[in-house]
Design brief:
There is one protein chain. This protein has 378 residues and is α/β, with parallel strands linked by helices. The protein has a single domain, classed as FAD/NAD(P)-binding domain. The protein has 11 helices and 18 strands. Strand 14 and strand 15 form a beta hairpin. Helix 1 runs parallel beside helix 8 and helix 2 packs parallel to helix 8. It is globular, with a radius of gyration of 21 Å. The two termini are 31 Å apart.
C-alpha cells in the first residue's frame, strides 16, 4: 500500500520504519523546514525499548540508563524509592533517558534519504472511496491508500476528524532544560522526583555530562509569563534542599523552555475510513508518567501488526484503535491525575518497603504495555 504519514517526529518516523519493513510504500510530510534538532531528554521505558529493538533501532551508548527513581520531599527526606533495574531485569529491556534529538537520529538511521518532505504543512485531508488526499499550505497535494496523522498535540489531521476544542489545558506547566551540570547525580543512574508546596522538580541524568531538569508549577493558559522565568524559579525553589539550588545556580536562561500540560479524552474510535492517528495526535497527555514517547512507539508497533493481517485497510485501522484503547486510556487517565505531584507523607511511604514498591512498579509497567514476550505477560 501507499501510505502517507503526516509528521516526522518520533511517531511519524516509527510508523514509517514499521511500514517500510512490511513492504509498504511510505511518504512522510513535515511542516518544519528541516529535521528537528531541539528538544530536551525523554525517558524510554522498557516498553519503548522493546519496540525500538523490534524496529532495528538500538539505543546502545545513547543517553543514560536509569536504574532507580527516588521521590524526595523538598527538605531532602526520602519519601519513596523504585528499583527500575529490577523491572528491566524482569522484562529484558532497560530504561534510558535519551535526548529527543538523539532518539530521532536513531529512528532516522537507515531510512531512505528522500523519505521525508520538509517544509510542507498539511491543511486538509479528504477521502474518496479507497483513496486519501492530503492538501498542503504550498498548494501541493499527495494521494495514497492510507493516511496516518502523527502530527502531534496541534494535529491538523485530528481536527479534521474530531473538530476543534478536543484538547484541553491541564493544571500544570513545566519549565525545563537539558544542561551540562556537573553535580554528583549527573553521572549516576538515579532519577530524582522532588515535590513540595511550591511545585515539583525532576532531575534525570541524560548521558555525556548532561542533566535533564524540570520544574512543574500550577498553570493555566491565561497566566502571564514571568518576565525573568529563571529568576522566578530561583525565588520559588531556591530554598529547597540540595541539589536543587545547585541546579538552579548552574542553569542559564538559554537552557530554559516552557510548555503547558494538555490532555484529551482518549476515544475508542480515533479515525475514519482510511485515516487514523498515532501518538500525541490521538492521546495528548501531561508528561507526569514519562510514557508519551513510549506509548507513541507502541502505537506504531500495534498499527504494523494489524495491517500485516491483511484485508480491508479501514477494518484493520479500526482494529488498531480498539487494540490500543484500553492501554492508552489507562495511561492518559493516570497522567492527567498528575501522580508526579502527589504529596505522599513520609510516614505513609515508610509503610511500603522498597521490595513492595518495586513489585508495584513492575505490575504497573506490565499494565501499560501492549507488547508480548519479555515486556508483558498478558
Amino acid at each position: 500500500m501507499d501510505v502517507l504519514v503526516i509528521g516526522a517526529g518520533v511517531g511519524g518516523l516509527a510508523v514509517a520504519r514499521v511500514l517500510l519493513a512490511a513492504g509498504h510504500q511510505v511518504r512522510v510530510f513535515e511542516q518544519a523546514p528541516a529535521p528537528r534538532t531541539g528538544g530536551k531528554a525523554l525517558l524510554v521505558w522498557s516498553n519503548g525499548n522493546a519496540v525500538l529493538e523490534d524496529l532495528g533501532v538500538s539505543l546502545a551508548g545513547a543517553g543514560a540508563r536509569i536504574d532507580r527513581i527516588d521521590g524526595l520531599a523538598s527538605d531532602g527526606r526520602l519519601r519513596t524509592t523504585m528499583d527500575i533495574a529490577h523491572a528491566a531485569d524482569r522484562y529484558g529491556f532497560p530504561t534510558q533517558a535519551v535526548p529527543r534529538s538523539l532518539l530521532q537520529d536513531r529512528l532516522t538511521d537507515g531510512l531512505p534519504g528522500d523519505l521525508v518532505r520538509y517544509g510542507v504543512a498539511c491543511r486538509d485531508v479528504t477521502q474518496d472511496g479507497d483513496r486519501v488526499t492530503a492538501a498542503f499550505a504550498d498548494g501541493s497535494t499527495a494521494t495514497g491508500d492510507l493516511l496516518i496523522g502523527a502530527d502531534g498535540h496541534h494535529s491538523v489531521v485530528r481536527r479534521q476528524l474530531w473538530g476543534d476544542g478536543t484538547v484541553r489545558p491541564a493544571t500544570f506547566g513545566t519549565w525545563q532544560g537539558l544542561s551540562p551540570i556537573g553535580i554528583d547525580i549527573t553521572d549516576t543512574t538515579r532519577h530524582l522526583m522532588i515535590s513540595g508546596r511550591e511545585g515539583a522538580c525532576g532531575l534525570m541524568p541524560a548521558g555525556k555530562g548532561l542533566l535533564q531538569w524540570w520544574f512543574d508549577v500550577r498553570w493555566s493558559p491565561a497566566d502571564p509569563r514571568p518576565a525573568a522565568p529563571l529568576a522566578e524559579l530561583r525565588r520559588r525553589f531556591g530554598h529547597w534542599a540540595s541539589p536543587v539550588p545547585e541546579v538552579l545556580a548552574a542553569a542559564t536562561k538559554q537552557d530554559l523552555e516552557f510548555f503547558g500540560h494538555h490532555w484529551n479524552r482518549v476515544r475508542k474510535v480515533w479515525g475514519e475510513g482510511r485515516v487514523t492517528l498515532a501518538g500525541d495526535a490521538a492521546h495528548t497527555m501531561p508528561p507526569t508518567l514519562g510514557q508519551g514517547a513510549n506509548q507513541t512507539l507502541e502505537d506504531a508497533w500495534v498499527l504494523g501488526r494489524e495491517l500485516a493481517k491483511g484485508g480491508d485497510p479501514s477494518v484493520r485501522l479500526r482494529a488498531y484503535e480498539r487494540a490500543r484503547y484500553p492501554r492508552i486510556s489507562l495511561v492518559s487517565r493516570l497522567a492527567r491525575r498528575n501522580p508526579a505531584n502527589w504529596r505522599i507523607p513520609p510516614m505513609i511511604a515508610r509503610l511500603f518497603p522498597e521490595t513492595m514498591q518495586t513489585a508495584m512498579l513492575a505490575r504497573f509497567s506490565n499494565r501499560l504495555s501492549d507488547l508480548p514476550g519479555r515486556v508483558t505477560q498478558g
